[in-house]
Specification:
Strand content: under 5%
Distance between the termini: 136 Å
Largest sheet: 3 strands, mixed
Radius of gyration: 34 Å
Number of domains: 2
Strand order of the largest sheet: 1-3-2
Helix content: 55-70%
Length: about 450
């Protein structure tokens, strides 16, 4: 007789099957579906070109960038205009409205002096609007008329400012830009910031149109621009006039290019691959290995050399302007497609040299850094921040051979031994006196011991 008692294992299996089936039916019933409206919205996003970082940003024609957040987090104040907005990125912001009013005053002065009309200025720049938009890394939301007005007003202000600063055109007697001493240094800094640029082609167009109405015909736009920034950089005129025919992307690119000389020889330098284990040691460690630093002779602070255990670095003046210029040039090189990396290489090199305020103090004592920036600790912090978040290829940079040569010299045992001996025992007069005194005491002790022991081995007759 068969038992009707259910098999427990069979019952459990059936229960699991029913549960799985129930779960499957539950998911089937509650499956999420996307309606046609949502699908259409997704298709619209697919077909909408990026605006915050447009496709133009990846092209060589794009040269004016919004500074990446990672750089802003480190050196934010060095990228933001303080009193004047040039170009669309900071256009209309409240803190730049004071200078916005003066732009139109300068435009009026230019029109009165040259007898040009507004329509002539606008007609000359209008064909450049499309190409100018392509120079910016973000889509510009201004319509063409507002964008054109901004280019003309900003461009005319810059050219008039340069002419007034060069004394080709006189300042108005009550012009606060000339009479208030704090404004001019702020303009020097604001006009070279990466986010605060308009294309140089627009400036060139306006300069050519308004040239000949004064004595500015003796200048090119490049030399007139460099003369303006020379109020703080203070380079000889013969260096400035070497770049009279330069056609850069914008004013920041002009300044950057004027520090890059043929003697840096990027093609030959890039063939040399640097040592893979490290970039370079700090000043303190280099000195312990017998490597010293001294001021070099070059028309650019980028012209660093190494020979016979000495790194030669041309003097650089560290102040508010130079710190801003270095930061903006490094960021420009990081953003621009296919750009050379001279400033990035320099920033990385100096960042490696400086680990502490003592390293900066040594560079100041050697007249390599002229400090108008702050304390040695503040300079050290700035230099270390300058090298943060930077993409750097040591194998392809203009200092690759120098990195190799310094590292090879540092690895030389006898150099390190002699330098350590000198650094430890002869670095100061007091340590030298201590070594001499200890040596004399040792000699006297040996002699005393010798003459004390000698009678026991050679008794007198």
């Amino acid at each position: 007789m068969e038992s009707n008692t259910p098999d427990p294992n069979q019952t459990q299996t059936q229960t699991q099957t029913q549960t799985q089936s129930s779960d499957h039916d539950h998911h089937a019933i509650n499956m999420v579906t996307i309606d046609d409206t949502h699908l259409a919205a997704i298709h619209q996003k697919i077909n909408t070109p990026p605006k915050i970082l447009s496709k133009a940003a990846g092209r060589a024609t794009c040269s004016i960038f919004k500074v990446p957040k990672s750089f802003n987090d480190v050196n934010g104040k060095l990228y933001q205009p303080q009193i004047i907005s040039i170009g669309p990125f900071h256009h209309g912001l409240p803190h730049v409205q004071m200078m916005e009013e003066h732009k139109y005053c300068y435009l009026g002065n230019l029109l009165a002096r040259t007898n040009l009309s507004l329509s002539e200025l606008f007609s000359a720049v209008a064909p450049l609007v499309g190409a100018a938009r392509e120079c910016y890394s973000e889509s510009i939301e201004l319509d063409d008329q507002v964008f054109l007005e901004m280019l003309v007003v900003d461009g005319c202000f810059i050219i008039e400012m340069f002419r007034k600063a060069a004394k080709l055109v006189g300042f108005e007697s009550d012009d606060p830009i000339a009479s208030m001493s704090w404004i001019f240094p702020a303009l020097l800094r604001d006009l070279h910031r990466l986010e605060n640029q308009i294309p140089f082609s627009v400036l060139q167009c306006l300069y050519d149109l308004t040239c000949g109405k004064d004595s500015s015909g003796s200048f090119t736009l490049a030399t007139l621009s460099l003369e303006f920034f020379n109020f703080t950089i203070q380079r000889p005129n013969d260096i400035i006039w070497k770049y009279k025919d330069l056609q850069p992307k914008h004013l920041l690119d002009l300044l950057r290019s004027s520090f890059i000389i043929p003697e840096l020889d990027p093609e030959n330098s890039s063939k040399e691959k640097a040592a893979p284990q490290h970039v370079i040691h700090s000043v303190s460690k280099l000195r312990q290995a017998g490597i010293h630093l001294r001021p070099g002779k070059s028309e650019t602070f980028l012209g660093i050399k190494f020979k016979r255990g000495v790194i030669e670095m041309p003097k650089v003046t560290m102040d508010d302007f130079m710190s801003s210029l270095l930061a903006n040039c490094v960021t420009y090189e990081q953003c621009h497609n296919g750009h050379s990396t001279y400033f990035t290489t320099y920033a990385t090199f100096v960042d490696c040299l400086v680990n502490s305020a003592k390293d900066v103090e040594y560079l100041c004592d050697k007249n390599i850094i002229e400090n108008y920036f702050g304390t040695e600790a503040e300079i050290a912090t700035f230099i270390n921040n300058l090298g943060k978040e930077v993409a750097f290829d040591i194998d392809h940079c203009y200092l690759a051979k120098l990195f190799n040569d310094v590292n090879a010299y540092h690895r030389s045992t006898w150099h390190v031994y002699l330098a350590t001996l000198k650094y430890t025992y002869f670095s100061t007069p007091w340590s030298f006196i201590s070594v001499v005194a200890a040596s004399v005491l040792l000699v006297l002790t040996v002699l005393q011991t010798y003459y004390t022991v000698l009678p026991y081995y050679k008794p007198s007759d």
